Predict the structure of mannosyl-glycoprotein endo-beta-N-acetylglucosaminidase.
Amino acid sequence: MGIDGFGRGTYGGGEWNTHVALDVLKKDDVSAALFAPGWVYESKQGPDFETAQNRWWGLVEKSWGILRNYPKVLPFYSNFDQGRGYHVYIDGSQAANGPWNNISSQTLQPVLDYSQSTIKAFINFKDASYTGGGNITFEGNLNHNDTFKTKLFGGKVPLEDLTLHISYSVREDANSRLGLSLGFSKNSETKSILLASDVESIQDQLKTKSYMVINPMLVKRSSRDESNDQGWIIKETSIKMRGYTLTEINILSYMKGKNELHDSVLETGVRLQMRGLDVKDSSNYNASLGHISIRTSETNDVFPPASSWDVEASDISWTSSSQGTKNVNLKMVWKLKEGDNSSFVKYNIYVRKSAQQSEYLGVAKVETFYVSDLEVLPGISSLAFVVQVCSSDGTSQKLDVSPSYTLVVKG
C-alpha cells in the first residue's frame, strides 16, 4: 500500500504522521511503499535539513524496524559518504572545496540512533573528512570512568578460519577516546572485542561487560591543516575468530583516564597546570570516525601497473577567450587490457597541468568520464589526465603510478 509524504489521500495525514499509517500496515503484515519522502526538503522543515531528515526517517524506523543488516560479505568498507557534501578528502588530504552532489559516491550508511542524548552521533558534513565528503562525529558530555556505546552496523559474516584485518581512522580531542567494538557469535556464545587505547579509567566496566581489549597499532597520522586541527590517526590490527560470525560493529566512547598535563581555565582567566590529576567530573567529549575497512587479505589489493591500461580521449573540442585562456571539452575512456577489474569500485580523476600539482576533477563509477570547460592558462603546453584506481577495501593506487592520458594543448 502506498503512503504519501505530503499526506495526499493518506491515512494519518503523512508529513510528521507518516508513521501512523505504517503502524497500521505493520500490525496487519501489509507491505508498504513510501512516496515523496522529499517532503522534508521541499517544505523546508526546520531547524535544518539534516536534523529534520534524520527525525522523519527515525519515525519510519521506529515504526517499521530495521529489516536488513550489513555487512554480509567481506571486504567491507564505508566512509559514511552520503553522495553529497561541501568538500572532498582523499586519504586525509583535501582534494576539492565546494558543494557537490554525486549519488554514486554513497557508501553503506550506519544505523545511527538520533534520539540519543548523552553522546550524539551524526554524519558531519562541515568538518574535515578522512575520505569523501563526511564523517561520523560523536559529541556530548561524559564522566571520565563512563562509557557510551553507539551501534553502527549489524551483520552476519561467517568467518570460518579467516583472519580479519581491520583499519579505521579516528580524530579525537585531547581527552576523548573512541574505540571500535566488534561483536561475534558462535552457536549460543557471544564475544565482544574492543580495539582501543588509553582504557585505564574504564577497566572495571570492560571487565563487567566481558570485553577482550586489543590495542591497535597506529600506522599513520595525517597532516594537520586549518580545517583539521587534530589530524586523522589511522589504526590497524588483525584478529582471528575461528568458527565465529561477525554480527555487530559499534563505537565505544570514553575519556582518557589520567592527564599528564591537565589545563583548567578559571573564570578569572588564570591558567593552572595540574599534573597527574584524574578527571572526575563530566567533560566535553568530541571524536570522529573517518572510515572502516575490514578485509581478509593481510595486504592491500595489488593494482595493475599503468601500462596495463588503455586510456583514450575523444570528442575533443577547444574554445578560446579574449584573455588568452583556453577551455577544453573531452570524453575519457579506459579499460584494463587483460585480467579482472571487478574489485575496482571507482576511479578518481585528476588533471596534471604541471609536474608539481594535480587537480581533482571528480569520480567515476564506470570507465568513462566527461571533462567540460576545463580552463587552461597561457603557457601550459600539455595536460595529463590521471585515472586513480580505487579498490573495494577503500585503498587507492598512488597517483604517480596511475594510468594517464596526455593531451597536447591546441596552439
Observations:
- The radius of gyration is 25 Å.
- Residues 49-64 form the longest helix (16 residues).
- DSSP finds four helices and 27 strands in the chain.
